[in-house]
Write a structure and sequence with these properties.
- This protein has 313 residues and is mainly alpha-helical.
- The chain contains 10 helices and 5 strands, in the order H-H-E-H-E-H-E-H-E-E-H-H-H-H-H.
């Protein structure tokens, strides 16, 4: 077992002589309290899915959790300080998880190991998977990965130790378990056709009453300001608005206004030329009027008589 170096506990304005630093330590009660807790963190022994295999590997001899004082994994929640949620949390399993958390003595911490415990992972859209254990329990450290490696889990445990080092007994927000009276237990979810959080029972009851009355419920209301802005964007621009916009462009950019004027003049000339060409083609296609000149008009009856006479011969 490694010997304790008292110099790590020095946190005071009173100097300690060099020859006595190995035997005497002047520190605060919070630092001594946090040091004793961070060095004897006992995780609860249970696993949910594939992340549990990586947790088992972390506890093996290659990575050696004993260096951090966390090798004592307890099978009872009443002897555990840390809950490592390792794996996919289903709606059926979240009920005993919350019940086990309530049975753990304070101070207690929760570490979400892997993508499934942190936010649902690849099964987030599944009908039977909870999108993160933090919807039901207060999570202190998230360890990403699918699954995370033993090194990642060790890094998460070190981050938890750093968080414990920053807690102070003088701040009740850091150590709420020292408050007046017993702590309120986390509500255990109700498993039915779907998972129900008891903290949302008022909202669920109100929506059920509206549904029974035939009124809409669970609808998102659009604020009036956003509705007016959306209507203004959809409404078509009127001619005065277009004229005002073009006048603004001309005032802001004279060169662009000149180019637009040239383009409009060219379009007008093109339209005029196309109109003259169409009129000329109409005149050319019209039948020529009969005149009293030397050219004789075509006689169809005489032509048919000639054809019959030839056939008769």
């Amino acid at each position: 077992m490694a010997q304790l170096d008292l110099r790590e506990l020095h946190s005071t304005e009173f100097p300690v002589p060099d020859e006595m630093q190995g035997n005497v330590a002047i520190t605060s009660l919070s630092k001594l309290y946090n040091w004793s807790r961070r060095s004897s963190m006992w995780p609860m022994l249970f696993g949910l899915a594939c992340c549990a295999i990586e947790m088992i590997a972390t506890a093996a001899s290659r990575y050696d959790l004993s260096r951090f004082g966390m090798e004592v994994m307890r099978a009872s929640p009443r002897q555990s300080d840390l809950m490592i949620v390792s794996g996919t949390v289903t709606k059926k399993m979240v009920v005993p998880i919350v019940r086990l958390y309530n049975q753990m003595p304070e101070p207690k911490y929760v570490l979400a190991m892997g993508a499934c415990a942190s936010g649902g992972g690849p099964f987030k859209e599944g009908y039977n998977v909870v999108s993160g254990i933090d919807q039901y329990l207060p999570v202190d450290v998230y360890v990403p990965g699918c699954p995370p490696t033993p090194q990642a889990l060790l890094y998460g445990l070190i981050a938890l130790q750093k968080k414990i080092d920053g807690q102070s007994l003088a701040n009740m927000d850091d150590v709420p378990w020292y408050g007046v009276g017993p702590a309120e237990p986390t509500p255990v979810p109700i498993l039915g056709p779907d998972i129900i959080d008891p903290r949302q029972m008022d909202l669920i009851r109100r929506q059920a009453e509206l549904a029974a009355q035939g009124k809409p419920y669970g609808l998102r209301e659009i604020p009036e300001s956003a509705l007016k802005r959306q209507t203004a964007q959809i409404a078509p621009k009127t001619k005065p608005q277009i004229a005002a916009a073009s006048g603004t462009v001309e005032a802001d950019d004279p060169e662009k206004a000149a180019r637009l004027a040239k383009r409009e003049a060219a379009l007008a000339r093109k339209k005029a030329e196309s109109g003259e060409t169409a009129a000329a083609s109409v005149v050319a296609d019209a039948p020529a009027p009969a005149t009293g000149g030397d050219k004789k008009a075509f006689d169809k009856a005489a032509m048919l008589e000639k054809i019959r006479a030839k056939k008769a011969k």
